[in-house]
């Protein structure tokens, strides 16, 4: 799920215009006098993820524990946002979710401030309309653990109200994993583990439902889940204004073909918390034109497109996204034709929705790409790595 921060769209454009070759300076860390050099490094852990499947794969979520004694809270591990928030007993609307009860945690500290968080992409395949994906939050601090790694004093938010699209979620909250949310100066769970000696990266194996066994490895890479050698690309510079995992892409292709709209340079956000692909309207329509002229917008749900369900499975629709590795080698990440259909429209069951939603100002790939590529999210190295997922 992509969090909207102030006017995210304008800020993304600003950042795009400033892209310049980056040299990442590596500095050895010199421990100040008096600090213990015997700090033990934390070992990586792998946690299983469940698939929220509703006709198509939507979200992958796993358990964390919060509080003392620990309460188990299922959360989406979301590279498109930067904070931790989850349903609580302070939220009468959150009846379908596991609710954290702050009165039962001896380490819970109320932070005393309330706020809202609004998302530009939601938990499903429908475009977000206005602020219909919004959570009302109360700040707090408590102990958080994932897979046995424990971080005390983590800054987090209790959900005290939610808009109705969240009601069907089988998970309680969202653990943001954007680069800024896990940077050393952040107060979050991941930053705390990095400060305790965990390597500053994570990797994801999020799979189609038929494959299962999805997982998140915090602090490392599960080399049994991909083939070949990962290829790495430097992420676009992040700042306080721009918190996304983004790579520059010189070209898109469809079944090996391209055109002048698709060869426009763009920066593409990788969001593990969004299932569909989002491109600007002209790019979306240029891609669909190369797949079938019969893929049409659905006027009942602006931003969505579809075609007769009985035709969709036979359409070749390999979408290729080109990138350049940190060593200057071009490489493509592809989305196979099997991802074209995300299932029938509720209001028109003979028409199946196609995977790209038009959204001007945002170019984003999510689960439909990440299902096929083992992904490495390297905060320390400011880069992302990919290798074909072993499915
Ligand atoms: C989360 O924990 C619950 C038990 O508290 C368990 O039933 C469920 O399978 C776990 N989910 C995942 C994804 O591990
Ligand atoms: C929760 O939000 C809904 C709108 O989604 C609103 O109608 C309701 O009054 C809110 N409840 C509280 C307790 O603020
Ligand atoms: C990437 O895809 C394009 C379009 O299919 C193709 O022309 C190009 O050769 C591919 N590049 C690599 C490195 O495979």
Automatic annotation (TrEMBL):
Signal peptide (UniProt feature, chain positions): 1-17
Protein name (Swiss-Prot/TrEMBL): Acid protease
Keyword Hydrolase included in the entry's annotation: yes
GO molecular function: aspartic-type endopeptidase activity
Domain Peptidase A1 residue range list: 60-387
CDD domains hit by this protein: pepsin_like
Keywords, ordered alphabetically: Disulfide bond, Hydrolase, Protease, Signal
């Amino acid at each position: 799920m992509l969090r909207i921060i102030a006017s995210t769209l304008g800020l993304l454009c600003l950042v795009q215009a400033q892209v310049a070759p980056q040299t990442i300076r590596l500095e050895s860390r010199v421990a100040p006098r008096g600090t213990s050099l015997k700090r033990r490094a934390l070992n990586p852990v792998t946690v299983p993820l469940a698939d929220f499947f509703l006709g198509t794969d939507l979200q992958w979520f796993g358990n964390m524990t919060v509080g003392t004694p620990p309460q188990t809270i299922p959360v989406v591990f979301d590279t498109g946002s930067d904070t931790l928030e989850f349903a609580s007993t302070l939220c009468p609307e959150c009846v379908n979710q596991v609710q954290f009860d702050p009165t039962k945690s001896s380490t819970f500290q109320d932070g005393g401030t309330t706020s809202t968080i609004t998302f530009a992409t939601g938990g499903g395949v429908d475009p977000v309309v206005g602020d219909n994906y919004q959570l009302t939050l109360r700040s707090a601090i408590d102990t958080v653990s994932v897979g046995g790694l424990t971080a005390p004093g983590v800054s987090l938010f209790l959900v005290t109200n939610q808009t109705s699209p969240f009601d069907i979620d089988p998970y309680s909250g969202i653990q943001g994993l954007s680069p800024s949310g896990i940077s050393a100066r952040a107060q979050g769970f991941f930053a705390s583990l990095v400060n305790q000696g965990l390597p500053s990266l994570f990797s994801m194996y999020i799979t189609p439902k038929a494959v299962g066994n999805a997982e998140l490895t915090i602090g490392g890479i599960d080399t049994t889940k991909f083939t070949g050698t990962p290829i790495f690309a430097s992420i676009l510079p992040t700042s306080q204004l721009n918190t996304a995992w983004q790579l520059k892409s010189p070209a898109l292709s469809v079944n090996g073909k391209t055109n002048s709209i698709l060869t426009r340079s763009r920066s593409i956000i990788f969001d593990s918390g969004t299932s569909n692909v989002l491109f600007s309207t002209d790019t979306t329509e240029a891609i669909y034109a190369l797949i079938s002229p019969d893929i049409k917008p659905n006027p009942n749900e602006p931003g969505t497109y579809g075609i007769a369900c009985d035709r969709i499975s036979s359409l070749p629709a390999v979408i290729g996204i080109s990138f350049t590795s940190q060593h200057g080698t071009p490489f493509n990440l592809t989305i196979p034709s099997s991802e074209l259909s995300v299932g029938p429209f509720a209001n028109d069951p003979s028409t199946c929705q196609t995977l790209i939603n038009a959204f001007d100002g945002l170019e984003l790939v999510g689960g439909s790409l990440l299902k096929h590529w083992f992904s490495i999210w390297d905060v320390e190295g400011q880069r992302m790595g990919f290798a074909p997922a072993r499915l």
